């Protein structure tokens, strides 16, 4: 039986017109052609984050147990693992100017593009691929993590949709679109219509999107013992001729520190820019 996810908001919004620095995917409804013209994508070189060339899939890494004897974060693990509320959340804007056009070239919507960028960024941070085991006495590092997000259904409810990790945005989008369509048509169980394939629930990064508004802070629901990273994307907003999107990252402090979240945002922006 799959454990209940913690995030409860949905993410089926219209395609956005672009992006801004540290941003996520929301629509530009209501903006004039003059305003949209002022939000042209900036020119920047593609950033290589050591992903495989072309469409070659990246070989899956193996899970491993972290030896704690000389682990630099052992003291932090011992300090935070027994706390009633050991998670912390950080919200920042990312630049998504021009994301819609760049994503379309890969057959992806902005929604799929920023989910892909966030998932690639999370896979690049060791601490975001780790989980507590043995009641918090040990740490396991997954070779790869995948995403589970929320999708607004035709009946007004929402369901969870699994987005398996793929280095190729085009392949990620192709599989994601099919799974999204099934979940949106389904009803009843939060997991109805979802096809996770061979993705293990414990390897999921929980994501959600709120295209109806921008936010400056976001709090995720967490079940007892839940240590999975959680990411929320807000509505695109025009700022000084750019498009920005708020992104909230919620992590377990026994596994992640502020420096890890900072590196995540750096990689997220680089991934968005490299699309």
TrEMBL record:
SUPFAM superfamilies: CoA-dependent acyltransferases (SSF52777). SMART domains: CAT. Residues 41-62 are annotated as: Disordered. Transmembrane segments: none annotated. Coiled coil: none annotated. Gene3D superfamilies: Chloramphenicol acetyltransferase-like domain. GO terms for molecular function: chloramphenicol O-acetyltransferase activity. InterPro entries: CAT-like_dom_sf, Cmp_AcTrfase. PANTHER family: SLR0299 PROTEIN. This is Chloramphenicol acetyltransferase. It comes from Pelomonas aquatica. The lineage of its organism: Bacteria, Pseudomonadati, Pseudomonadota, Betaproteobacteria, Burkholderiales.
